[in-house]
Amino acid sequence: MQMTLDDWLSRLESQHPVAIDLGLDRVRAVADRLDLAERPLARRVIVVAGTNGKGSTVAMLERLARAHGHTTASYTSPHLIRYNERLCFDGVPASDEVLVTAFERVDAARLAGDPVSLTYFETGTLAALHAIAERAPDLAILEVGLGGRLDAVNVIDSDVAVITTIAHDHADFLGNDLEGIGREKAGILRQGRPAVLGSRSLPVSVSARIAELEVSDYWLGQAFERDDTPAGGWRWRGEDASGRPLVLDELPDPGLPLDNAAVALQSLALCGFELCPEATREAFATVSLAGRMQWLGQWCFDVAHNPHAATYVASRLAARSRPARRIGLLGVLDNKDAEALVMALAPAIDLWLPVGLAGPRGRSSENLAACVERAGGEIVRQAASPAAGVAGLMPLLTAEDEVLVCGSFFTVAEALGAVEAIRSGDRDAPDRQA
């Protein structure tokens, strides 16, 4: 009997000794058996690395390309609700059938000859790359999962490499040295291929790698820029690969970071795609990304899980009219700096509801509550899980309140499901999930 997608995912979770095993030797061996290096993945490939902003950059690249009439494939991680979200063709998540077929192909390749052990992420990445190569779209957009140099995505040579931002995160794998983190992120750069840098300031190690490889670099604030316009909206100024200046005016706010929107436009221009003002405006007016400043009534969901991302969320909330109360429903993994996260969000939050997260990296609500209190936050209550937090908070809310749910993909996914269930009338759902 053929395995289902759930069967495959359960198998992949246990087939390798550790969940994260950085290195490319095993991945490259299987990629060679799949002939991924022998055929073009797509007409153009963009690889996106960085600490924050990868997901929104990918979403805007994908939507812009489709608005201009190009076929697309995108690979991102992690997913929010369903694994299928990781691989999308023309904006639509891949079917179970496509993923199962790709997993079967990767498994056959890794067992051909000397068996190769792959992690969950490595198998998923190779399966996505194989499925994309089978379709050969106009544009493939690949998000780096962790780091860059040793990430499985880095077996692919891109036409344009993007580094969004560099900040502290995943210290257990990347360390706390920003120069070291920069070197890892810069591992996606390729000699003779342009790099788009989405921050006005990056570690010296990134510039050193650019110089070493003689890469053409396009920096935010130098080669391209975004500005507010007097009539509202914003303007992008950039250049194509030949240095010809490009300008797009009266662009709508996509509801995602404008720096990343500017990065997306510059990256597409370097791919040789002509940018049409009308198609660009339509793309920014309609782009969306689940779990990033996603509003559902008075509930806002954002997967921010480090201080850099939380500072952006706080700035977006500060731009809104202040509600009677804004409550932060927060769940944070044990390997994250919860106190720094709380302090970054504090200007926008009145009360806190710490929730626990299960699993090997989970943090209890009691531990998180102590972090909130050390950071000076006032706690309204706490709960054992995000769903239990939603269920307990609902009766306390008035129409004038707002709730920010953030701290982790796990927090947002569970709380979003609980809120949607209650709004749809299944009021017992949060209790069952808790």
UniProtKB/TrEMBL annotation:
SUPFAM superfamilies listed in its UniProt record: MurD-like peptide ligases, catalytic domain, MurD-like peptide ligases, peptide-binding domain
Residues covered by the Mur ligase C-terminal domain: 291-409
EC number(s) per entry: 6.3.2.12, 6.3.2.17
InterPro entries for the chain: Folylpolyglutamate_synth, Mur-like_cat_sf, Mur_ligase_C, Mur_ligase_C_dom_sf, Mur_ligase_cen
Top-level class of the enzyme under EC nomenclature: ligase
Pathway note: Cofactor biosynthesis; tetrahydrofolate biosynthesis; 7,8-dihydrofolate from 2-amino-4-hydroxy-6-hydroxymethyl-7,8-dihydropteridine diphosphate and 4-aminobenzoate: step 2/2; Cofactor biosynthesis; tetrahydrofolylpolyglutamate biosynthesis
Known catalytic reactions: (6S)-5,6,7,8-tetrahydrofolyl-(gamma-L-Glu)(n) + L-glutamate + ATP = (6S)-5,6,7,8-tetrahydrofolyl-(gamma-L-Glu)(n+1) + ADP + phosphate + H(+); 10-formyltetrahydrofolyl-(gamma-L-Glu)(n) + L-glutamate + ATP = 10-formyltetrahydrofolyl-(gamma-L-Glu)(n+1) + ADP + phosphate + H(+); (6R)-5,10-methylenetetrahydrofolyl-(gamma-L-Glu)(n) + L-glutamate + ATP = (6R)-5,10-methylenetetrahydrofolyl-(gamma-L-Glu)(n+1) + ADP + phosphate + H(+); 7,8-dihydropteroate + L-glutamate + ATP = 7,8-dihydrofolate + ADP + phosphate + H(+)
Name of the featured protein: Dihydrofolate synthase/folylpolyglutamate synthase
Species this protein is from: Salinicola rhizosphaerae
